[in-house]
Design brief:
about 350 residues; FAD/NAD(P)-binding domain; D-Amino Acid Oxidase, Chain A, domain 2; 2 domains; eight-stranded mixed sheet; about 30% helix
Length: about 350
């Protein structure tokens, strides 16, 4: 079998890259093992334009957010369903200090931060002592629907191999690659944390973080917004279901869900929520984060046929569409990749 591009992984990066290659008429094949605990399948799909305790704007958010929203709408139209919804974030301040930090940021720039006019509006759903602010616009994407629908489409077109990729079977030449009976001009690694073990990219500064979440069901809880009080509580596209998370563990013994997170989060929800809820599921995943908090996109300095699109961390929902398109344009027209994301910044260590 011969293809233009062989893609490893069908998470958010592999899905988006293959979408743009599909639009451009390039032939491709995806190899993916359908891991139910892959980071893209555990993530909530939130696009939040601000980050951190100081409410600073996320990197490149003015560029990547509108592009992402447009892309999710475009793919949704392809499947005849909605894959993204604007769900502004209601941020309940956990302390007077956070209230003051938010108020200070309001005086500096209010592009995404807004005071909420009715501070008692959410009293029947939540306990909160220090008021709330609003982050707008923010969005939630149906990553589960996106990945599963695209997977089904790929299967019908014979563009998907559901199996584990074996690095030892890959033969890399300067201008092409061979993998078992597959020949392609290029191979792109989009397989999350697994890329940190790929011989061509294992020198990159990956810094995986573990996240855990609870899936809850509540018929009385409003789904009009994403809610935040330390943890996020986000309405899913399935009625009455909500995603609660996520933790950020930089040191961990294993990638499995823990009783500690379950018990702490249940205690937190019992104190925060005024409406009944039921815990449906508990999942964990390792995010492909990086030391610089910047993605990896581009090709190996010594092997033009080996590329990577990875390292999106917690921002994959917003970053993946933009950088998948940049990488596709680079493949098609040799268009430049944003320097902060271009893997060329690591040419020195990758060339050793």
């Amino acid at each position: 079998m011969q293809f233009d591009i062989l893609i490893i992984g069908q998470g958010i990066c592999g899905t988006m890259l293959s979408w743009f290659l599909h639009k451009a008429g390039k032939s491709f094949l995806i190899i993916d093992d359908n891991n139910v605990n892959a980071a893209s399948k555990v993530a909530a799909g939130i696009i939040n334009p601000v980050t951190g305790r100081r409410f600073v704007y996320s990197w490149m958010i003015d560029t990547v957010m509108p592009f992402a929203v447009q892309t999710y709408h475009e793919i949704g139209n392809f499947f005849g369903q909605s894959l993204i919804a604007q769900k502004d974030i209601i941020d309940f301040f956990p302390s007077p200090q956070m209230l003051n930090a938010f108020a200070t940021r309001l005086t500096e720039n209010d592009t995404y931060l807004h005071s909420y006019p009715d501070q008692n509006h959410f009293n029947r759903f939540f306990n909160y002592d220090f008021g709330c602010g609003q982050i707008s616009p923010a969005y939630i994407a149906d990553l589960s629907g996106l990945i599963s629908n695209w997977r089904q489409y790929l299967s019908t077109k014979n563009l998907l191999l559901e199996e584990c990729f074996d690095n030892s079977l890959l033969s890399v030449e300067k201008d092409f690659i061979n993998y078992q009976n597959i020949t392609a001009s290029k191979i792109i690694f989009c397989d999350g944390i697994n890329s940190s073990d790929v011989p061509w990219f294992n020198a990159l500064p990956f810094s995986p973080s573990k996240g855990e979440m609870l899936l809850i069901e509540s018929e009385e809880l409003t789904n009009e917004h994403i809610f935040k009080k330390g943890l996020m509580l986000a309405p899913l596209f399935q009625k009455h279901f909500f995603w609660v998370g996520s933790s950020y563990q930089w040191e961990y013994e294993h990638a499995n869900p823990t009783n500690e997170f379950y018990n702490q989060t249940k205690t937190f929800l019992n104190q925060w929520l005024k409406v009944p809820y039921k815990i449906i599921d508990h999942k964990a995943a390792l995010r492909p984060s990086t030391l610089e908090r910047r993605p990896f996109a581009g090709f190996h300095p010594q092997y033009n046929s080996v590329g990577i699109l990875n390292g999106m961390g917690t921002k994959g929902t917003s970053l993946a569409p933009f950088f998948a398109n940049q990488l596709a344009q680079n493949i098609l027209f040799n268009a430049p990749i944003t320097p902060e994301a271009d893997v060329k910044r690591f040419n020195r260590i990758l060339s050793k």
